[in-house]
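To: structure subgroup
Subject: Chain for Friday's discussion

All,

I'm putting the inputs and outputs inline so they're searchable in the archive.
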Amino acid sequence: MSNHATGPFDVKVAPQPLSGPVEDALLGRFSLEKQYHGDLEGTGNGQMLTAGSEVKGSAGYVAIERVSGNLHGKAGTFALMHVGTMGHGQQHLEIKVVPDSGTGELVGLAGTFNILIAEGGKHSYDFEYSLPVVK
């Protein structure tokens, strides 16, 4: 059984120092803080690593985010794994629920999370997910 959740969210991205001896201007590390609204009410916190390129419009990022809140009224936490690339301006982003990361009423959560960015930078999400039937 597939469920669908949508709504807006606010995001704050803040630069963080890279760990280790890496001093490459094309690499970056950022903290993520999100406030979700709509069918998912809660917060998200995570870390993002980026790699730029000498070619304008080409880059990549990975991130792990821990979400805590209520999804259609079910309380718990879960983790999202982000993998994004951009080649010559063409974007590809895949965000999945980390298997078995759900807690509370979200145990067994699985799904794909899509981020939509409208003109003006307003963010929203479109989340296709499944939860096991509780008997």
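Points worth raising on Friday:
The beta strands are 3-16, 27-36, 40-51, 59-71, 74-87, 90-97, 110-117, 123-130.
The longest strand covers residues 3-16.

D.
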